[in-house]
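Write out the 3D structure for:
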Amino acid sequence: MSSKYHIYGMGNALVDIVTEVSDQFVTDHAIEKGFMTLVDEQRQAQLMDAIHLPSSDRQCGGSAANTVIGAAQFGASCFYSCKVANDEMGDFYHGDLTSNGVDTNLEPGAHEDGITGKCLVMTTPDAERTMNTFLGITANYSEKEIDEAALKDSSYLYIEGYLVTGDSSRAAMIAAKRIAESNGVKTALTFSDPSMVKYFKDPMAEVVGSGVDLLFCNVEEAMLFTEYDSVRQAIQALKSIARAFVVTLGAEGALVFDGDSEISIDPYKADAIDTNGAGDLLAGAFLYGITNGKTYEEAGKLASLASSRVVSKFGPRLDAATAQALHAQIFG
């Protein structure tokens, strides 16, 4: 009997505000380039004022949201567990999420008082993305946001590593993983960002626990978590914590481990202008593939193609028509 949802995602609900900045702007404002940094609302507002926000774009985001929306565009049935406030940004987020075909625990008119989280995504001319995030109400993400019925009726639980920064959200990660494991739902985790492994190594290890079915990470995150300086040693060490994994290698493509064999996934040529969302969409395309009858290699090819396309434009997502065109390019 098949599950209602291919993917049940959980993560921070953040309205992504995407903009371009110069390297000089990053230096002048003492921003840690290439990382996700948590900031307070005042600091984020100061940066937005300096950038001149009206020229920016916005959409419902957060890492796992981008992943499940990407998976939905390829044809996966998805649910997203998150938390927004009863403000204009919260209403915008809820509407944007559901308009992309994703079911959610959010209920119209029932959002709590507070401020919806926002992520200021700054892209520099070298296509690198730097994020300054004000979590707002999603800092209080907890087990209350878990929809057990939807989770139990899913093929995969997908957990966003960014949730590890808070005590209540980390408890929710662990609780959801336990529910999944008790009900035959496979578990997938993304480390999300090198800073999550660098500064929250022990809490992340607590979430990993006895292991996950599928791990997504990049080379830097793999080496930080396993504490190996060698890529080969780090990848080998991942096999003790993840039954399968996808390690992204930047311009060199990706390495997929399916539980038995390592599979090299070739990169697709891309003129990168914005790396924001590349890893998120890669995970979404890959999860779509393995939950819809594709092999790990086939899923890896679609994921590689999708990520190459999203870095060739600004913003963390493709549109649905482009996603379907990429699907046809790989699968006919």
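The domain at 5-12+63-105+141-331 is CATH 3.40.1190.20 (UDP-N-acetylmuramoyl-L-alanine:D-glutamate ligase).
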